[in-house]
């Protein structure tokens, strides 16, 4: 469809859902299609109330109707933009979109995946990349059969290729599961798993000791930059290699622990999520169900750059990781590793569907 055809189609879709007095026939609004999205421009005065309820109602009306020609991105907040027009039409709702549907990456081996040559960029799909410098730290959540394990393995393999000579990839896995078995094949990974006789209260102090070691390194790097760099804006990627700290099965790690042990762990997660970006340290947390009880509140969630929810998407599964999600939208269909993602880097402004890379050697 060309621009005018797209505008007519969107207008017909909205007219079919709005009350007759609010339709385009009554000149109550008009639609303008742009390269990066479309504008819904109400003509004032109007019975339409320009609030988030109307914004997301229009989104729900249009998103499914445009798929798969366009993927309309669900913005995390209402996008009200100013226009150069008469006062009656000087404002509009903006709905970002991308043309078509982002494609899943498929390759026979990890080595053959078309990954970004930029050391701090992780390719998630064709047309979707995650910049660790702009948006460090991530949470991956998904139940059994969601593809969470395969997604985690993709991140681990990607990070392993990016750590450099003096970087570190630290993997903490309380269940000695897929990630730990993968790490056994890669001696350069700093793997921490329970000893055979460990109880949960025995293992967590070893975890907090490892995290304290990372926090000490964070402080050392920050002191180095303070003393050595005259730049007002900088980070440790200019001086040294990255550190990746990945905590697998975080939910299992925190079950049944004494309050003081749990609070120490949660405090360290908050410190790393808040302060470690400039130190070139990335924290990754993987859990079957992301809940406030794991993190000691919402502070960690608010400071992660990437939130990824795989598998079943409903209000219950999304309520902690995506509290702003009130409605559904088209998801990519085609096997494990599909879900929704939000990248908080100043360039991606909403929640998007995702299909994580598939590597055939995993199946």
Automatic annotation (TrEMBL):
InterPro entries the UniProt entry points to: AAA_22, FtsK_dom, P-loop_NTPase
GO terms, molecular function: ATP binding; ATP hydrolysis activity; DNA binding
- Which superkingdom, per the lineage? Bacteria
What PROSITE patterns would the database entry show? FTSK
**Gene3D superfamilies noted in UniProt:** P-loop containing nucleotide triphosphate hydrolases
Q: What is this protein called?
A: AAA domain-containing protein
The source organism is Weissella soli
